């Protein structure tokens, strides 16, 4: 991958993180301002396609730095990342894989 393409990929990852950060902050603020708002907290298992320690670490940290989500544990075989989501949906795992994980794989290859 050329230096320019790598720089663009990192920029896209940064943009995606900023977008998710804004959306997550909005969700947390709404939950705080309206405690009756229904939440769907859950611990989800995210199967990992990223294999490197750097990739897993970057992905786990991006998830944890996004308000309302926390990376809890990486399985011993490094195939699954367990994530607590304050407001999970049926697409939470797919969203993580198609968003953060896909971009992390792109920037680290």
Q: Flag low-confidence runs.
A: none
User: What is the tally of helical segments?
Assistant: 3
Largest sheet at a glance? Answer: 3 strands, antiparallel
Helix content: 55-70%
Query: What is the distance, rounded to the nearest whole angstrom, between the alpha carbons of the first and last residues?
Result: 8 Å
Mean pLDDT: 96
- Strand order across the largest sheet: 1-3-2
Total number of strands? 3
Please identify the structural class as seen in this structure: alpha+beta
Question: What is the topology?
Answer:
Blueprint: H1 3-33, E1 42-47, H2 53-65, E2 69-74, E3 80-85, H3 92-107
Antiparallel strand pairs: 1-3, 2-3
Helix pairs in contact: 1-3, 2-3
Q: In summary, what is this structure?
A:
The protein has helices at 3-33, 53-65, 92-107; strands spanning 42-47, 69-74, 80-85.
Can you put this structure into words, describing what you see?
The protein is an alpha+beta fold. The chain has helices at about 5-35, 55-65, 90-105, and strands at about 40-45, 70-75, 80-85. A 3-stranded antiparallel sheet has the order 1-3-2, covered by helices on one side. Helix 1 runs antiparallel to helix 3 (about 90-105) and helix 2 (about 55-65) packs across helix 3. The chain is globular, with a radius of gyration of 15 Å. The relative contact order is 0.21. The mean pLDDT is about 95.
């Amino acid at each position: 991958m050329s230096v320019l393409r790598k720089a663009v990929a990192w920029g896209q990852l940064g943009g995606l993180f900023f977008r998710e950060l804004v959306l997550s902050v909005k969700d947390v603020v709404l939950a705080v301002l309206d405690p009756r708002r229904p939440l769907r907290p859950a611990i989800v298992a995210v199967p990992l396609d990223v294999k490197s320690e750097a990739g897993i670490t970057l992905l786990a940290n991006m998830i944890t730095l996004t308000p309302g989500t926390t990376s809890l544990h990486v399985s011993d075989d490094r195939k699954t990342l367990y994530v607590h989501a304050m407001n999970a949906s049926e697409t939470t795992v797919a969203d993580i894989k198609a968003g953060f994980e896909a971009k992390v794989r792109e920037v680290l290859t």
